[in-house]
Amino acid sequence: MKEEFDYKKALEELEAIAKKVEDPATALGDIDKMIARSDALIASCREYLRTVRENLESMQQ
């Protein structure tokens, strides 16, 4: 069964990644992985928000 997307957890993870990327002690190789993860999270957040918006619009009609 597919796990339901948790928007709040995704935002929290994005914030944590941003802090790690800004930390000078973070290795460049790790930053590359973090950017890839951020891209995936952002895409999931956009899809989630698009679905919510479409559901709200359909309810208003």
Q: What is the secondary structure topology, with strand pairs?
A:
Layout: H1 7-22, H2 28-60
Helix pairs in contact: 1-2
Task: Walk me through what this model shows.
This protein is an all-alpha fold and 61 residues long. It has a domain at 28-61. The protein is 80% helix and 0% strand. The chain is elongated and about 50 Å long. 0% of the residues are buried. The mean pLDDT is 94.
Quick overview:
The protein is mainly α and 61 residues long.
Q: What's the multimeric state?
A: single chain
Q: Could you tell me the radius of gyration in angstroms?
A: 15 Å
The fraction of residues in strands falls at under 5%
Total strands: the figure is: 0
Main beta sheet strand tally, sense and closure: none
The helix fraction, in percent, is over 70%
**What string, H for helix and E for strand, traces the elements in order?**
HH
Morphology call: elongated
Number of helices: 2
